[in-house]
Amino acid sequence: xxxxxxxxxxxxxxxxxVAIVITFLFEGPASTQVDRPYSYLVAFTYAVLLYASVLxxxxxxxxxxxxxxxxxxxxxxxxxxxxxxxxxxPRTPGREFLIAFAGPALxxxxxxxxxxxxxxxxxxxxxxxxxxxxxxxxxxxxxxNLLPVLPLDGGRMIRAAVWKVSGRTRTGTFVAGWVGRxxxxxxxxxxxxxxxxxxxxxxxxxxxxxxxxxxxxxxASFIWMGxxxxxxxxxxxxxxxxxxxxxxxRRATQVTAGLPLAEAIRRANEEGAGALVxxxxxxxxxxxxxxxxxxxxxxxxxxxxxxxxxxxxxxxxLALSADLAGEELIIAxxxxxxxEYLLVEPTGQVYGVLSVTDVDRAxxxx
Length: 366
Known about the structure:
Blueprint: E1 9-11, H1 14-31, H2 38-67, E2 72-78, E3 81-86, H3 93-120, H4 125-145, H5 153-166, H6 169-201, H7 206-237, H8 245-248, E4 252-255, H9 261-271, E5 275-279, E6 285-289, H10 291-296, E7 311-313, E8 319-321, H11 326-335, E9 340-344, E10 350-355, H12 356-364
Parallel strand pairs: 1-2, 4-5, 8-9
Antiparallel strand pairs: 2-3, 5-6, 6-7, 9-10
């Protein structure tokens, strides 16, 4: 959709589903100010402005991250709001705290500005309705994101605080994760108590009581899954330093594009190689053969299929240094998602091929 501050902004197709839902929900209040079908246009305008507020929230995270030298890959708006794809973790707890705090702070500022406009600026009925709704929405976004739950901003702020005290990011993540799980249990208990109380005072509210329980369960599930994912990710992060491109590399057999696949496989088996690299007549690598494409080709057809037909050209970002390891290796792979990467020596000589499958196995501890 654009590149504010040089950061690419994408909108997921799921946003349109949310926009439709918001439009129909907000059309009722809008119809009290304007006649149909113009009320639908006002409601859709609210949906767009609401996500514009979400974009500003995410931009605040990304801009602060870039001020600290952290690369931001993109911002994506989707069905649950938005996400800033910051490629590296902050190196200090103070920076982590400021990056997390920037989002709720700016949402609160937007709510404050909206309130001042609503109180002191003469507005038309439609504009007044939109300003009032956006002010409330930004306030809710600010408060919700301050919940002490990972991956919400409040959870990241707790992680930063514990990291500062303990000196370890791992400890901060685990404390924030377990706090989030406790909040999830608390939300579920509060929903059950609220439903029980409403049912005991008014038997006609049984349906509302069940709705409260269901809603509390959904919120609690969201919080629990987010906290659990953060804990699981931290455990996986412990394995990052052990990832070494050289150790995970497969030996590669170099073949020309016109060679039959059956012959290429025979040569690879003879050399004990686990990958195929396409080279030109001067021996320069030009393509990587996709392992899944090879496995999907029936043996009866392999003598008649040229190996080059199953290859992908080697773009500059698919050629990685064989010396990469740890977080640097993960960042390099994240920049250019692919199934295979060519590993080269500092001299430019081919060392081997790195398969994402092998990296996944290393993460899984296989």
